[in-house]
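task queued by scheduler; priority normal; single chain, no ligands, no partner chains; default sampling; output format set to C-alpha cells
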Amino acid sequence: MFKIISLVVLSVISLHLQAQSFESVVSKVKGSVVGIGVHDPLGAPKNTLQGTGFAVGDGKHIVTNFHVVERALDAESMQKRVVFVGQGERPDVLEAEIVITDPAHDLAVLKINKKVAPFKLAETKRLPDGREVAFTGFPIGAVLGLYPATHRGYIAASTPVVTPSANAQQLSIEMIKRMKEPFVVYQLDATAYPGNSGSPVYDVKTGEIVAIINKVFVTQSKESALSAPSGISYAIPVEYLQRLLQELND
C-alpha cells in the first residue's frame, strides 16, 4: 500500500514539474514572437496584421511565411511592411525590409531596426512521429490587440507536399520540378488558424524551433477554417530555414 501511494505522489509531482516547465517555456517564447503586417496611412485601420513571425540570429531578423509577405504593397497609398513587437493594445510598429525569400519552401526573412529576443534553432535532424510540440502566434489576428496564443500537439506524420499553381499557364520549370520532387513537411495533430501562418513550432521542453507553421488543412471552404477547423496543420521543418539563413550569411 505504501509503495502504491508513493508512486502516485511521485507521478503527481512529476506532472506538476512538467507543467511548470512548459509554462516557463511559453513565457519565454512569447517575447520572441511578433506580428507581421502592413501599415497604410490612408487606410482604416492603419495597421493590419497578416500573419505571425519570430526573431532569430541577432534579434533583428524576423522569419515568417513567404505567402504572408508576397503580396505587393500599394505605393500610391504609401503602404509599408511592418512588424508588431510587444503585447497588448499598443505594440511597437516597426518598418521592415524583406531581405531574402524561399518561395519553394514558403519562407521569408525580414529585417527590423530593433532587437527582439531571438529563438534558438534546433538541430536539423528529422523528428519522429509522436514528438510533442507547441506553437505560438496570432490565430485570429489582432482585433483586440496583440495577444499571442499557444497551441500544443504532436507530429502525426512526415509527408510530402507540393504547391500546385492556379492554372497551367503559371507553371514554371521550378514548379514542375518541385511537383516531381516534393519536399517533406510535418503534419501536426494540432489546430492552427490562418493568422498562425509563420508561427514558430518548438520543442515543449527546450523551446528550440523545430518547424514553421505554413498551412491548415481545410475540409470545406476557406471561411470554415475558423468555424470548423480540421485539427490538421502543416509545418516546414527547420532544416529549410537553416539553409536559407546560411544563404543570407554567405
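post-processing summary
- The radius of gyration is 19 Å.
- The helical segments are 2-30, 66-69, 173-180, 224-227, 238-249.
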